[in-house]
Design goal:
Number of strands: 10
Order of helices and strands: EEHHEHEHEHHEEHEEEH
Structural class: alpha+beta
Strand content: 15-25%
Largest sheet: 5 strands, antiparallel
Distance between the termini: 33 Å
Helix content: 40-55%
Shape: globular
């Protein structure tokens, strides 16, 4: 929850951690403090160690900060990445956007994004406008994680075929522990670009309620006059959500199709995360 961040302290130098994702994919995270004394240390004595063999650089800007050193440090990071890990993905979070008036957020974000791109040495950089108080941070992390999954295009194409064969409107694959979106395919356009984040939050809250009651969440079905939504355990490390508006398709048939596809997708997910 956003309010839980109030209990977090600042990062002292470098905090290293490992997170297991999708069962077998292990992410080694180096959380680097942004204080001046640490930043200087990174680019002098630790440059070769810190920036070698990097797959993803995530740089966070405080949108309210006007300190010229912010961009100076970012440029130094980009130079080091270009030297030691030129194939790394670079993601930039323009953070604390909730502090900007709603009517000015897009203008402020585009201005910061232009400044970031102009200092990125023509490397491929993706910028996100984020805040802990809405769905934007979840969206950013979902897209970042998608880049980290080897052969993610195989998973996406298989999900597209599954969506077509079941005549569904949309199919979404969530990571089991975090409920971040791994992949999705939609046959129809949607106005709400943050729907996945909202659904994820609803399901996580429901899972928490189940845990408090001593129950284990396995699946959920929501039906109304417009659509049917099925959320179910899919592979050992994922959940699937399937949306259908075709009233002629019986819910039991959709649930059977999900069950029959589990073994096939288990192999795809394991093969995708096994590639180093």
């Amino acid at each position: 929850m956003p309010k839980d961040t109030m209990r977090l302290g600042f990062t002292n130098s470098i905090n290293e951690s490992k997170i297991r994702f999708l069962g077998t994919l292990c992410l080694a995270l180096w959380d680097c403090g942004g204080q001046d004394q640490f930043m200087t240390h990174y680019f002098e004595s630790q440059r070769d160690t810190l920036f070698r063999n990097v797959q993803v650089l995530i740089y966070v800007f405080d949108v309210h900060s006007e300190d010229p050193r912010d961009m100076k440090y970012y440029k130094s990071c980009v130079d080091a990445i270009q030297e030691h890990s030129p194939s790394a993905y670079i993601f930039v979070l323009i953070h604390k956007m909730d502090l900007i008036p709603l009517e000015k957020r897009d203008e402020v974000f585009q201005k910061r994004k232009t400044e970031v791109i102009s200092n990125s040495n023509d490397l491929n950089v993706v910028c996100f406008s984020t805040s802990i108080w809405d769905e934007t941070l979840y969206l950013a992390w979902s897209q970042i994680v998608h880049y980290l999954i080897p052969n993610s295009e195989v998973l996406s194409s298989s999900l597209r075929r599954f969506c077509g064969s079941t005549e569904a409107d949309e199919v979404v694959l969530f990571e089991k522990s975090t409920f971040l979106v791994i992949s999705h395919y939609s046959e129809k356009s949607h106005k709400d670009v943050h729907r996945f984040e909202k659904i994820s939050n609803i399901i996580k809250q429901f899972k928490l309620s189940c845990s408090k009651a001593g129950a284990r969440f396995k699946s959920m079905t929501v039906m109304n006059s417009n659509f049917s939504a099925f959320v179910d355990e899919f592979t050992s490390s994922t959940y699937i959500m399937l949306i259908s508006s075709d009233k002629s398709i019986l819910p039991a048939l959709t649930q059977m199709n999900i069950e029959l596809a589990k073994k096939h997708f288990e192999g795809i997910v394991k093969a995708s995360t096994a590639v180093s």
